[in-house]
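Hi R.,

Here's the chain you asked about this morning:
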Amino acid sequence: MNQTGMDRTGLHHSDTSHREMRHTYAGVSIAAAVEVPYQRHARTSTAELLAQATALALAQAGIEAREVDGLGVASFTLSPDHAIDFAWRAGLTVRWCMDDCHGGASGINLLQHAARAIQTGDATTIVLVSGDHFEPADFTTLVENYNVNTRTLLRPLRTGGPNPLFAMLTQRQMAAARLERADYAALCIAQREWASLNAQAVYREPLTLQAYLDSPPVADPLCRFDCVPVVSGANALVLTLTQRRSTGAAPVMIRALRASYNFDHQHGDGLVTGIRSVRDQLWQDSGLSPADMDVVSVYDDYPAMVLAQLEDLGFAGDGDLRALIHERIKTRQLPVNTSGGQLSAGQAGAAAGMHGLVEAVTQLRHEAGARQVPHARFAAVTGYGMVQYRYGMCANAVVLERGEVV
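And the predicted structure, written out as tokens:
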């Protein structure tokens, strides 16, 4: 969505002559992107969820399990099994295998390494799968033992997980950007409206401003609708050599990808993520700009982090977050988290790092049904997560492009 020449949303577009293929991951395509429907009370196991996602992805790509020679897995609850154990149980023989532990950044992290593996010939067809099954005790164990700092510094305080940490971060953002609870409500409501069009979203019922303001407090200023609901589920992608085969669906290419980890070593206020430090490289690599994006999937563990990442990417160039919410997100001039995001679709553990990727690919394949963004060609997706003891340590972003149907 550019600002010189009108586009379908009423915004402006720049001259597109600069959009020649500049893919730093040339030769690699995303051939499938699927989601095992998230559930609040799933009667299954993590391994079964991952197996379902793998089977769905291979079926969508038109690929048989015997053709897979690479596997990447992200999960908090697959333990004590690892990626190689899952490969054996799934009947896969692979020559590239990766376990990921980057939480909300895991999807893009896996994507980066898998694409490079295909480019270098380490593999030709890679399945990336992520997901978790949570019982109440599982989630409690996770948040109390997330890392050494969580276990030794935060668990004795009985903080109950990351909510108090991001409540303080939200307070800082409210003061810095002069935001009110009603502004965060507008963002949550906008995502819930998208979710109402997504049959797989766990929470689809209408959300009103009054319902938001009256909802139970969690940690001031956060209420129930500001915190991602814990669910069980899984997601999967299939990466292949470009034009490996024709399935009648458009391939999706990686236009550019950048990542930043521990960029400020927890010394900042958390309102600037590592995405800010790689933003210029990301857009330079892609040959595009924020204004060219048709769809944006932002990791949304909390509304404040949606705004922080959008600003870091350059979608609020003047720093006016209120205008970004009310003039662009609420009006859908900027389609953000068109699945409903995790705030309405649910957060299935490590699957959350892949949820936004699956939605972006679905939009670029023009297979999103009632929530389809017309003529979507470019998408930006972010990952964020792995709380050290104040906020997330990991951040990454990818620009995706719809290819031609062959």
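The longest strand covers residues 28-39.

Let me know if you need anything else.
M.
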